[in-house]
Design a protein that fits this description.
The strands form two sheets. The chain has a seven-stranded mixed beta sheet with strand order 12-11-7-10-9-8-13. A six-stranded parallel beta sheet has the order 3-2-1-4-5-6, sandwiched between helices. By secondary structure, the chain is α/β, with parallel strands linked by helices. The protein has eleven helices and 13 strands. Strand 9 and strand 10 form a beta hairpin. It has two domains: about 110 residues, NAD(P)-binding Rossmann-like Domain (Rossmann fold); about 170 residues, Dihydrodipicolinate Reductase, domain 2, CATH 3.30.360. It is globular and about 55 Å long. The longest helix is centred in the last third of the chain and has 20 residues.
């Protein structure tokens, strides 16, 4: 780890949409002196490095051996487990985009590996760094809202991902609403004890061809009998819309309800929200991504504990996995704790 206040070199693997976005974000952070990028497609990494003024490594072994202080994994999901394992073996503090792996068994194996080491591994759930969700969590913790009886959470993408993304995504609940599952645990401090989930293919047929859906809903019960409804879609042309409503015995709050919310009132004369809706998740959560990667540099420097652990990621993945089982088997699924 670097010394307090010392600039650092951060390595990043995977320069697709989110990877290139992370690389640009890292470059702009005061704590980061240099960013070194690699990709399974070396020519793509070289091009991104040239465009952003970064260093280039021809492959992951070269990247890990290049004197980096921290390692950011933004590669394909199928590569996450192997890359985390390589980083732990090299003793390099690591940030990895969710999920850890493509299934429960592999996720559990990686969790055991990380927890048996002293290498900090930070999993990327950026909503934890969003100001609205943090404020909602503070209200829950303080008791300002009383007891929470219902929560409504939604993730509505403005447009679907390309066909080639779906076979490797893990399915809608593991890929998309897993963010809702993590932030529900973070905001409430509670665990999910049961789920009932359903889904449908309403748009492009390629979702169904891979056994996936493009619209889904789930009813979760928390361990204090709070009821949570989660809904999501790949088709929300009004804009990228991520919100959470917490309804309590003493008050209620909403996260993501502002001038940019991709929603319009049907009531005559009502103009709110009147701003331009967010187009993508990177637009909606840009400040959160900056805060998240800033936190990672503090983890690298040894001045902060990991804010989202591999065990947190496993908990969210278990909920997502239970939802997939529920969707396929049309039944309530209970989670053990």
């Amino acid at each position: 780890m670097t010394k307090r206040g010392q600039s650092m070199r951060i390595g990043l693997v995977g320069v697709g949409r989110i990877g290139a976005f992370h690389a640009a974000t890292l470059k702009a952070l005061p704590a980061v002196d240099q960013v070194v990028v690699a990709d399974a497609d070396a020519s793509r990494a070289e091009l991104v490095a040239k465009d952003l003024g970064l260093e280039f490594a021809p492959d992951v072994p070269a990247l890990l051996a290049s004197g980096i202080d921290g390692f950011v994994i933004a590669a394909a999901t199928s590569a996450h487990a192997e890359l985390i394992e390589a980083a732990v073996a090299a003793g390099i503090p690591t940030f990895c985009e969710k999920p850890i792996a493509i299934d429960i068994a592999e996720t559990e194996r990686v969790v055991e590996l990380v927890e048996a080491s002293t290498v900090p591994v930070h999993i990327g759930f950026q909503r934890r760094f969003d100001a609205g969700y943090q404020a909602a969590r503070a209200k829950v913790v303080s008791g300002e809202l009383g007891f929470i009886h219902h929560i409504r959470a939604n993730t509505n993408d403005a447009f679907p991902p390309p066909r080639e993304y779906i076979p490797h995504s893990g399915g809608f609940f593991r890929d998309c609403t897993v963010h809702d599952f993590d932030i529900i645990r973070y905001v409430t401090g509670r665990e999910v004890v049961s789920v009932y989930a359903t889904g449908a293919n309403r748009g492009e047929t390629f979702f169904g061809e891979y056994g996936d859906v493009d619209a889904a809903a789930a009813l979760l019960t928390l361990d204090d009998n709070t009821f949570v409804s989660v809904s999501a879609t790949r088709y929300n042309a009004a804009g990228h819309d991520v919100r959470m409503e917490l309804l309590g015995s003493l008050g209620s709050v909403a996260v993501g309800l502002d001038a940019h919310t991709a929603l319009r009132s049907a009531e005559p004369g009502v103009t709110f929200p009147d701003g331009t809706p967010h187009a993508t998740f990177m637009d909606r959560f840009q400040p959160a991504y900056v805060a998240e990667l800033t936190a990672f540099t503090e983890v690298v420097a040894g001045t902060r504990e990991v804010p989202c652990t591999v065990r947190d990621a496993l908990a969210a993945f278990r909920i997502a996995d239970a939802c997939e089982v529920s969707r396929h088997e049309h039944r309530v699924v209970t989670l053990a704790h």
